[in-house]
Amino acid sequence: MPGEWRPLAGGTDLMVLFAAGKLKHRRFLNIWNLRELCGIIMGTDAVTLGALVTYSDVLRHPKLRLEFPLLAAAAEVTGSIATQNRGTLGGNIVHASPAADTPPALLVYNTEVELISVRGSRWVPYCRFHTGYKQVRMQPDELLTRIRIFREHTRCRSRFRKVGARRAQAIAKLSFAGIRDLEKNEVRLAFGSVAPTPLRCFRTEAAVRDHGDPIAVLATELAPISDIRSTADYRLTVAQTLLREFLNDAG
Predict the structure, then answer these.
(1) Taking CA 177 as the corner, what is the angle to CA 172 and CA 182, rounded to the nearest 5 degrees?
(2) How does pLDDT run across 66-80, given as a tens digit for each residue?
(3) Could you read off the pLDDT of 111-163 as tens digits, one per residue?
(4) pLDDT per residue over 20-56, tens digit each?
(5) What letter does residue 152 receive in the DSSP assignment?
């Protein structure tokens, strides 16, 4: 039946899920060679990336690295070189792991994603794409085709940090991405591995903007858990420390 088939691109999580007995589907359609889903287009106001753009594609693109350093930093710490060569941004988004490396960067860049089905196409703000643990705002017959990141035309300071058990090939205990627009006095903050979804921290941003206590507000906005990689207390403490350091350095 059609519902049993799933699109497959890089497949970097496929054997991991299979070995763990968590692979729900057994029929896959290989979309790796669809040229329409490849390529990076630098437009006047935004850059558009095909869903099949890999981490290595990001790292090899000088303008992308220059204008979106947080995305490049996330791509650089994602898995091994083999994973970077096969893993795709679209797959990373749709897989919807709260511990994925690129989502915090994409969240603070005000990213949008395009979803296509036989009914047409629609653009969804990425900050509204994740609805729950590994749940997304995407219909079963839709395919994520493009990712659009709006280009910054103001002076910004930014930081990306991944905290793991080792320096390479580690799943994040937590991750952080932050941008401070020095001209608009705007702050955008996002975390991974501290909630059921990659999280854009709008309430904490408001606390910074309104001269409140963002460190205290962050504690109410995050929902970390204890698991084999870390404890909830550790995740919360480190998240608050990373935020404090970022605000002090970017202020």
Answers:
(1) 165
(2) 999 999 999 999 989
(3) 999 999 999 999 999 999 999 999 999 998 999 999 999 998 778 999 999 99
(4) 887 887 788 899 999 999 999 999 999 999 999 999 9
(5) P
CATH of the domain at 243: 3.30.390.50
Cα 106 from Cα 191, distance rounded (Å): 11
Distance (Å, whole) CA 106 – CA 11: 21
Taking phi over 0 as left and psi of -120 to 50 as alpha, with beta for the rest, 51 belongs to alpha
Q: Are strands 135-136 and 130-132 parallel, antiparallel or unpaired?
A: antiparallel
Q: Domain containing 48: what range?
A: 37-150
Q: How many residues does the chain have?
A: 251
Token reading at 82: 């083999």
pLDDT for res 62 = 97
Beta bridge pairs of residue 130: 136
**Which pLDDT score is estimated for 1?**
40
pLDDT at residue 246 in the model: 97
- Whether residue 7 is contained in a domain is answered as no
Burial class (CB in 10 A: 0-12, 13-18, 19+), 13: middle
- Domains of the chain: total: 2
Contacts for 191 with CB less than 8 Å, ≥ 6 apart: 104, 174, 175, 176, 177, 198, 199, 201, 222, 239
Q: Which residue shows structure tokens 């839709």?
A: 142
Name the nearest CA neighbour of 104 among 93, 88, 91, 113.
93
Q: Is residue 27 part of a domain?
A: no
Look at residue 78 in the predicted model and tell me its pLDDT. Answer: 94
